[in-house]
Amino acid sequence: MSTRFIIHVDMDAFFASVEQHDAPTLRGRPVLVGGSSQRGVVAAASYEARVFGVRSAMPSWRARQLCPHAVFVQPRFERYREVSQHVFAVFARHTEVIEGLSLDEAYLDLTGRTTDSQHLSRIGRQLKHQIAAETGLTASVGMAHNKLVAKLASDYDKPDGLVYVAPEAVHRFMDPLPIRRLPGIGPRTAERLQAAGILTIGQLRHSSPAVLESVLGSASQSLRERAAGIDERPVQRASLRKSVSQESTFDKDISNISYLKDLIKQQSEKIARSLTARQLYARTVTIKLRSGSFSTMTRSRALPRPTAEATLIAAVATQLLESWLGWHQGQTLRLLGVGTSNLVGAHTDQAED
Description:
alpha+beta; Alpha-Beta Plaits; 5-stranded mixed sheet; 24% strand; MutS, DNA mismatch repair protein, domain I; disordered C terminus; 353 residues; 13 strands; DNA polymerase, domain 1; 5-stranded antiparallel sheet; 4 domains
């Protein structure tokens, strides 16, 4: 396959940064976007809060323990959508091949619009400067020949990063990174790999297939390819997307139904924002559950109408969760995810008004 030129743009602490931009008194302070009640969930954390260990999807009570002086701000999703539209308008000046992952994150395919890494890097700098000039926010930009490496590059020097990884430098760049940085490796998988003495992506790449299969099972081959920086996925425009989902893996098994419902609400908000950014509507809602015994199951339900509305997605997902818990009382969960599928475009006559 001929060399591709891929850019991954990830806005820095997007929701919290918008709040700090709009309210100068919040700048330099630890800001948490989300509910502040005992049942609340953190939707986003500023970098000032992250240094205390606070992260998204964390219960608000735990975030308050880690960072007692944090400022909680209620989400303003309409404002975030408005800023996102400006950001995506910047993307569209450079290419029409844009795969929006959420309001604040996207892949751009510049293949055919640039011929060398120097030009690609100039485009990356232009993206950052234009976004900053028009929104007042910073973005981290990763550039590479495929989506996997570009995403790792954008995350490498956050915030406000600009990193290009040449094809011949992939192993030198990826090998020292901790295995947790590789997409597809969650906390539990990382624990199993670390117990086997595999701590870095390089060690994963060099491990024998037999060792990896004993640790990872059927996922060993695909993760080994990722560790080698292999990724042939194309940048997909919105019309090619088949599903949009969010999931969270817990540090400890969870059985608190109130917390799970609040998490569904947060995940549904993110899905709705992603659908809106892509101008898509969902016909089906699915929940993904992984029990404390590592059993994974899914439950799905068709929607009464195609939607990008967070409240409807959350309501259906909550009903699916309650139905499952009704048959599995006392069950604890390690993972909870919400997904939407059977997507239709915004201009279809089946979309909601």
